[in-house]
Amino acid sequence: MENDFLKNTSLISYSKKNYEKTSYSSISDVVLTNTTPSTEWLNTYGLNFRNIFKKIIINNNLDDFLIKLFMKEEHPNKVILLDDLVFISTRVLKTESKDLDSEQMFFIFSSGFLWSIQEKSGDYFNWIRERLEGDKGIVRKKKADYLLYLVLESIVDNYEEAYQKNADLSSDKLNAEIIKPTPEFTSLVEKRKQELFNFKKAAISLKDMIIKLEKIKIADFDIKYYSELKEQTSNLISNIDFELQELESKINLIFSIQGHRLNEVMKTLTILSVIFIPLTFLAGIYGMNFENIPELKLKYGYFILLGIMVLVTVISIWYFKRKKWF
Fold this sequence. Notes:
Elements: H1 2-7, E1 9-14, E2 19-23, E3 39-45, H2 50-59, H3 65-71, E4 78-82, E5 85-94, E6 101-109, E7 113-118, H4 126-134, H5 144-173, H6 183-214, H7 224-285, H8 301-322
Parallel strand pairs: 3-7
Antiparallel strand pairs: 1-2, 1-3, 4-5, 5-6, 6-7
């Protein structure tokens, strides 16, 4: 278990002039402190190292409430201020999956370090690592609060890119000009709505976490970075709501088309019924087997009855046209 933890854990240590990326050979080498001049980013893949997390917390004299938090199986979104550090728990969408799977992430933040723990291997943070290694921008001149901001920004940006990509694909398949009241088209609309609900749930969860971070008061933690993040998530939620309204309009239009078609069919059947009811009535009368039906003995009775039927049909059609029923 310890070897697995060490394989899935890496450290980036940086300052204005220095950068170092290392791996550990022993758990005792994992040091999380605010006393060094450099900022440290510890990253771990996997949540099944709870006993090792406990050892690290104890070895580094971190708040022991972290042990209780790590021992829980399920974690709702949390932002908890502890002794000189902040514990953050969030569930993040894995947008590279078509099913929009999710993973649990933990962040333990203090002025001198950031410990990110991810449930699954792979993330959206390589561009941050590249900027740290290449000394691009201001990231190496900033402390851990800016690093946490970049990590959360990566998550938000990934949501926006994945949402936009799926929105473009959806607009091609669900073009308003080709709306068809078919089960296939309706299924596509409902599938897209489910995707949007997943995105919206994740975006709202992230926004709530950012709002909580804005209220945090801890040394070397600048909350100004998070106002921009909150605006980004708000814009994403607004875009999702707008598309959801569009999809609802398409569903309503599908129902309207289906209702209109059903009304047309019923109107046609009703008109045909009204035309043939009197004809059926006349045919029924003279189809009875009573002996005393005087008209049956008329020489031209059959042709007279046919003429009456034609006249009734013509009058009915003329009346319907005058009323503009068809």
